[in-house]
Amino acid sequence: GENVEQHPSTLSVQEGDSAVIKCTYSDSASNYFPWYKQELGKRPQLIIDIRSNVGEKKDQRIAVTLNKTAKHFSLHITETQPEDSAVYFCAASTQAGTALIFGKGTTLSVSS
Amino acid sequence: GAVVSQHPSWVICKSGTSVKIECRSLDFQATTMFWYRQFPKQSLMLMATSNEGSKATYEQGVEKDKFLINHASLTLSTLTVTSAHPEDSSFYICSAMPGLGPDTQYFGPGTRLTVL
Fold first, then answer.
1. What is the DSSP letter of A67?
2. Burial of residue A89 (number of CB atoms within 10 Å: 0-12, 13-18, 19+)
3. Is the pLDDT of residue B41 over 90?
4. Could you point out which of A64, A93, B72, B105 has its C-alpha 20 to 30 Å from the C-alpha of A102?
């Protein structure tokens, strides 16, 4: 089955810096890759997603890149702000109607 | 749109009792719902896939007789933790997918279960 690895487990940056979180997946059939942000005790919130027919997607300060050949995808946050501090999870799924397999998460801390 | 609710938001029970958690899609029909559990500072671990009108599919290592899942309608799935023990204490989160279209899953707010 699918296995998703996520790095780093913790990331500390200064406000205004960029943050990059990387994930790799094992199943070449995976075609949907969302990123979720979770604050303590809250539900995961979808922040951006990408499908396998696209190499990059951007939404304001957030971007995701996908390399299907290498089977890895990354989240890029620019101009980080303290409110970006949270746990970020990457995930992958192989087809519509199937469950997401999550990475272990990255705790991002943005200090002002 | 695409709101998922869970009830209760938190529950404390005695060891040996059963607890039912409800997951509802409020503004869409969900043919598929998923149940995850999350231990403190850990990731979301898939427990089972719940399909309306059929038996749930459980992940390896998840006891189907202990975690009973019922998906009786297109807007409601329930998870019953039977004979709960302290090690079942966790954060249980459901998610729902609107039909067979986009893969986007919408998560419920979670239920914090504490077994004494």
1. E
2. buried
3. no
4. B72
- Structure tokens that stand for B68 in this block: 């009973």
Please give, rounded to a whole number of angstroms, the shortest distance from the CA of A111 to a CA of chain B: 20
Using DSSP bridges, classify how beta strands B19-25 and B4-7 pair: parallel, antiparallel or unpaired: antiparallel
When pLDDT is cut at 50, 70 and 90, the band that residue B109 belongs to is very high
Place of tokens 């304001």: A60
Question: How do residues A29-70 score in pLDDT, each as one tens digit?
Answer: 898 999 999 998 899 999 999 988 889 999 999 999 999 999
**What is residue B91's predicted lDDT score, i.e. its pLDDT?**
96
Residue B67: strand pairing partners? B81
Q: Which residues pair with B6 in a beta bridge?
A: B23
Q: How far apart are CA B50 and CA B75, in angstroms?
A: 12
**A12 to each of A40, A46, A105, how far by Cα in Å?**
17, 22, 14
pLDDT at A95: 64
Q: How far is B44 from chain A (nearest CA, A)?
A: 6
d(CA A69, CA A89): 22
Burial (0-12, 13-18, 19+ Cβ within 10 Å), A78: middle
Q: Answer for the pair B93, B79: CB distance below 8 angstroms, yes or no.
A: no
Question: Rounded CA gap, A92 and A3, in Å?
Answer: 9
A52-61, A68-77, B10-19: segment of lowest average pLDDT: A52-61
Say if B100 is an interface residue toward chain A (CB within 8 Å): yes
